[in-house]
Amino acid sequence: MAMTEPMYHKPVLLGASVDGLNIKKDGIYVDVTFGGGGHSKEILKRLGDEGKLFAFDQDEDALVNAFDDKRFTLINENFRYIKQFLKFYGIRKVDGILADFGVSSHQFDKAERGFSTRFDADLDMRMSTRNSITAFEVVNNYVYDDLRKILFRYGDLRNANLIATAIIEKREETPIKTTAQLKEILQRFMPKAKEHKILAQIYQAIRIEVNQEISALEEFLTQTADLLASGGRLSAISYHSLEDRLVKRFIRDGRFEGEAEKDFFGNRNVPLKKVGGLIVPSREEISMNNRARSAKLRVAERI
After folding, report:
1. CATH for 132-210?
2. Which of 31, 27, 6 is nearest to 235 (CA)?
3. Are 302 and 231 in contact (CB under 8 A)?
4. For the segment 163-191, what is each residue's pLDDT rounded down to a tens digit?
5. Could you tell me the sign of the dihedral formed by the alpha carbons of 29, 31, 36, 38, in that order?
6. pTM for this one?
């Protein structure tokens, strides 16, 4: 077995998230956000020779981090298709699923991907280059109502209407092609003390829309209930309130809106039960990896 160090991503809440899986030596596990392979590497350390680990990552760049290990299979697909692709490999039940949502350090640091507020790049923001929609499409072609809604919902921007209006007025003069052009248009909405924070919120909103992250998350979570064997664990790390709220509600209610289903006697009919409380990074981890600062880990077990 040969496993190299992860190329481009420092895994967040590594010990706690893998501990949450309560790994069995001969179990079958899934890391749905492989990235640099940090979480997968730790899972493989705890598996025996009969154990298996499947990993998903839609980003083609992640393929170079695959391990040469007979227990390991990397699938270059979005985790919203987890059930479909595991079935292809003859897997119908697993003992644990780990998810580390959000953007990898590599994606932020690679300027041409357009994820970071630090660089000038084409408006892209795709986690997979196979996706047809780019940030250019969102910024230049979305109608006012749709643009305003994504900025408000995904970026938590209270002045989403003004930002959407400014973008539309400018693109009527000339297409907005780069992140630098977008930043210049939005400069007046960013007080000096809050410039980075507000710009990050705008980028986040556009990125979530480009990659359809919320619908993918909902589809993924719904499938975990069917995939996890009794006693199997879900260990999920979120980075913004919208993601965390969906994870929390699904664990609590088995759905994303409304109350949990109840049986004839009024007992809650939910597939998962919470394991422990909310886990956040220590001050020490945040000091070593600033991108961990907003991470929230929730663990659940299949009933």
Report:
1. 1.10.150.170
2. 31
3. yes
4. 999 999 999 999 999 999 999 999 999 98
5. negative
6. 0.92
